[in-house]
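Appendix B. Raw example, untouched.
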Amino acid sequence: MRWTTGKIRGVQPVYLIPPATIPFELESIVAPLDTGSLFAHQPDAPLEVDLGCGDGSFLTAMAERIPERNFIGVERLLGRVRRTARRAACLGLCNVRLVRLESSYLVRYLLLRESVAVMHLMFPDPWPKRRHHPRRLVQPDFLEAARLALKPGGELRLTTDDHPYYLHMRKVFEAFPGFSEEPWEPGEDYPQTDFEQLFRAKGLPVYRALLRKV
């Protein structure tokens, strides 16, 4: 199994999964991703972004079930990126790309305005210690960056097992005017992440929110 990389100068590589074997290099770490080049086989397809894709179980399941959409997975840990790359390659998925990068950086600097149909944030690090709360991804500046990247009517889907972090999320987005919250309870056919499978097996609750750009 082979994949190519395009270097993001000063940051991390973009992994291109076969059969997309054309090397892709960003000219700048602040220039938006050219998704038309990343997904040349269907450049106009709706784009979904999985922030912190972990082992890729959710990302690849979604890409396999909805081949008419493009998917970008973002993950900073190299081992997880490689596992997801192998999984996508074994499934023959041509609508998946992986970026080894911090999710916050990609959302703030690399996504084109109004380019994303759905953004998934599944089980982000809750940073439970009070002194670490500023490190939590869901903050007003993140919501504003996500709002700019989403298409009109686009969705930001948030999932966590950590109730204090869920309350923090609610406090943040209830004070933010760029989204409206909608009821959301995924069906049985909605893929689960590796974390969700673990929490469900232990009988632990999972908290969700769906925010729609207005």
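End of appendix B.
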